[in-house]
Specification:
Length: 346
Amino acid sequence: MFVDRVTIYVRGGDGGNGCVSFRREKYVPRGGPNGGDGGHGGSVILRAVQGITNLAHLSHQRHWKADRGDHGQGSGCTGRCAEDKVIEVPPGTIIKDRDRGHLLRDLKEVGDFVAVAQGGRGGFGNAHYKSSTNRAPRQHEEGLPGEERWISLELKVIADIGLVGLPNAGKSTLLSRISRAHPEIADYPFTTKYPNLGMVQAGPDHGFVVADIPGLIEGAHEGHGLGHEFLRHVERTRLLVHLVDVAPSDGSDPIANYRTIRQELERYSPELANRPEILVVTKMDLTGAEESRVRFAEAIGRDVLSISAVTGQGIPALIHHLVDRLDEIPEPADAPLETADQNQDG
């Protein structure tokens, strides 16, 4: 099961109470206060780790609470501080406060972390209050409660390149040829039901991550098909690779298919539609594909690369071209994209 959005409740542990105690030893009259402070409660921390691909492990446990600190004890013994509760999430997870709506942290890199619920501070024992005028204090402080809140987690796949196109355009097949990813591949639409990531090694000093996004259809920006659920995953990409089948088995027009996807990207986010794009026609091993490619390139009026993931035709040239383009494109800004959903809400 692939889960890329989840809401959970987090609560930091309460601090331990301070202790009221007095030194009692033989031959030591008026020993004075020796009550120790309470230990601090544990915090709830979210940390991005390698090896986790989605948020499915959080969908079955919605409440996370750290342990409280131990109470202080006599003889000046401070209570034990509780350990932090660490929740592991995949890189690319965005954490927001559910009720206030503000961003807490964007965990982009492995090792990034954020404390979403601080543990409470331990209370002072009576030894903390002794003074020249208060030699036998009986006051102490109770530990402070830990923070609590509901937070929303949203995963946005971090990849340099996003593969977009209609269902069965050849995205998964291409990903399997250029990387070690093993996405499900079949000859029916919507074989890909969630994003797949693949690392492409283009040389000793060049490598990039490619995301295979589930096929888009007309109306995807309104929630039709699978594409709307995963359009957010191409928001972080620096470069879009638009795959077009020049000889669709359903007899549709490749030019119309290309324009359909472009319209969906523009309606979802104009900024996303303006990202650098490489246009690639696929399945060049089919009969009549070359003639269709020429007609397609003339109609679109753009440079078009051609490949066949089955025979390997054009794939080395495509990888070389992707490396050159990525070198020219700066890292994307941290600001989130404005999407059609946000425009409607506003």
